[in-house]
Amino acid sequence: MEGYQAPRGMRDIFPEELETWQEFEEQARSLLTRYGYQEIRTPLVEEKSLFERSVGQDTDIVMKEMYTFLDRKGRNLALRPEGTASVVRAYIQSQYYQRKKISRFWYEGPMFRYDRPQKGRYRQFYQLGVEILGGKDPYFDVEAISLLRELVVAAEVSDAQIHLNSLGCPACQQNYREILRTFLRSNEVRFCQDCQRRLQSNILRIFDCKNAQCAEVVRVSPPLIDKLCTSCLAHLQAVKEALDNLGVPVKIDQWLVRGLDYYTGPVFEAFVSQETNAIAAGGRYDTLVSSLGGPNLPAVGFAIGLDRLMTLKDSRTHRASVIRAFFLGGRAKSVGISLIDNLRRLGLAVEVDYEDRPLKTHLQIAHREKIQWCLIMGENEIAQQKFLLKNMETRHQYTIALNEAGQKIRELTCSETASVGK
Ligand code: HAM
User: Fold this and answer.
1) Atom of ligand 1 at shortest distance to CA of 258?
2) CA atoms of 318 and 125, how far apart (whole Å)
3) Measured torsion, CA atoms of residues 201, 253, 65, 192, in degrees rounded to the nearest 10
4) 302 CB within 6 A, ligand 1
5) Whose CA is nearest to atom 10 of ligand 1?
6) Element (H, E) at 153
7) In the CATH hierarchy, which fold is given to the domain comprising 319-421?
8) The domain made up of 15-169+229-312 is a member of CATH 3.30.70.20
9) Which residue, judged by its Cα, is nearest atom 25 of ligand 1?
10) pLDDT for 184-194, tens place per residue?
């Protein structure tokens, strides 16, 4: 039998890579707290119809990419393809809007889309998302975009470009649908089968088509931004101006559309030069809360694709290295284990190889695994109430008294790790 593999488009993330993620997550958590955001955790599974009603029946996500299944009682469920719908569902279900006028949530976790796997595109991928519920003022959009930029900078990615457009309110979109329908009517035959259907069901989704011929037709159609109502245009201008004043560079991109139906105003995506796919995206969605059965409350948010952002981030600050401990003989092991317990209580990181191996083998293994510090204890050391600490890079070996263990280890590992790392 062949060995098991992770499902296609899904992957394992090992500790070495996760260090980079955790470094970013710590910074992100602190930044989000300083902006007044609170974490929310929602189920990975929701009713399938939640996404049909929010993301949209005619979107690729719902039509082609959702993992759906019936549970044992025949309920139609889906693995969440994104986080916004779940947050809004939770907000309405708990009547959270009665607790706070403006709610600021953030979340992080896996999302699932049966996408075609390729570089930076997975079937299980991770998002860090932010949703501001209850705010209409353009400054809420400005806050979302500035925060997105700060998070990207926290990941040491300095060249991200934010593209901004507006998809307009439902009235703008209705008006634009008519304009587009009239414009595209003469080109109907040039569209692929999917787009022929979109022309009837949801014409704005034509912009999602990857087919070159469809894209060519769409490119010459009038952009929505030129057809915005006065209030949507003023909102977009206010956002752009405030961002300019704050020194947050954004570029107006009249062809920026989103693959989800719920947007009703400014939308934005962040790109970097090395990646064709967006590293983050979001926008305003003022009708989603009411369309899912809640009150008429506006909202704006975004999500960062962590798999994409993390491949761009260098891990500069390495965590304090773990000390490898081993003992030579049974008595050394029983005394040594209580020493290790004490060291951990003092905040040092120590991992133990309990196997009985010759000293040379222990050192060879530590060398191969790039361990920097080894703590060694044998019968002689116990008799003298001492142990050895060996720096595997410089090969220096220190004899340390048991009663000075914590302080001495800290001194040595801090000073030498810093100088060796230089
Ligand atoms: P989205 O554009 O579908 O928006 O996804 C946001 C980000 O998730 C993308 O820019 C990308 O970085 C990442 N992403 C999407 N699909 C994949 C994939 N298959 N593999 C790897 N990364 C991926 C949303 O999901 C909205 N909920 C964002 C939002 C929040 N809008 C308002 N609030």
Assistant:
1) 2
2) 25
3) 50
4) yes
5) 280
6) helix 138-154
7) Rossmann fold (3.40.50)
8) no
9) 82
10) 888 888 889 88
